[in-house]
């Protein structure tokens, strides 16, 4: 399958991962995540927000629950 210039450029450079303070981990997609129970989930988004706080209702994806104040 032919790739365009942007695709080949993305494959050449390291994948960027950004750790957001008190927030998610942003990863250039697409990604496949293996969970601790062995299940695998896939996201085809351009940037994927992985939950680092474990409070997300859609774990492993961030649903912005990290923004809520704890009592
Ligand atoms: S980091 Fe956003 S919900 Fe956990």
UniProtKB/TrEMBL annotation:
GO terms for molecular function: 2 iron, 2 sulfur cluster binding; metal ion binding. The keyword Iron-sulfur applies. GO terms for cellular component: cytoplasm. Residues 28-71 form the Iron-binding zinc finger CDGSH type domain. It comes from the Bacteria. Gene3D superfamilies: CDGSH iron-sulfur domain, mitoNEET-type. Keywords: 2Fe-2S, Iron, Iron-sulfur, Metal-binding. InterPro entries: FeS-contain_CDGSH-typ, MitoNEET_CISD. It holds the Pfam family zf-CDGSH. This is Iron-binding zinc finger CDGSH type domain-containing protein. It comes from Streptomyces flaveus.
């Amino acid at each position: 399958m032919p790739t365009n210039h942007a695709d080949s450029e993305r494959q050449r450079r390291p994948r960027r991962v950004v750790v957001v303070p008190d927030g998610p981990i942003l990863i250039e997609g697409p990604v496949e995540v293996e969970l601790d129970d062995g299940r695998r989930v896939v996201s085809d988004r351009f940037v994927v927000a992985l939950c680092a706080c474990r409070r997300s209702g859609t774990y492993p994806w961030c649903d912005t629950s990290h923004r809520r104040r704890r009592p």
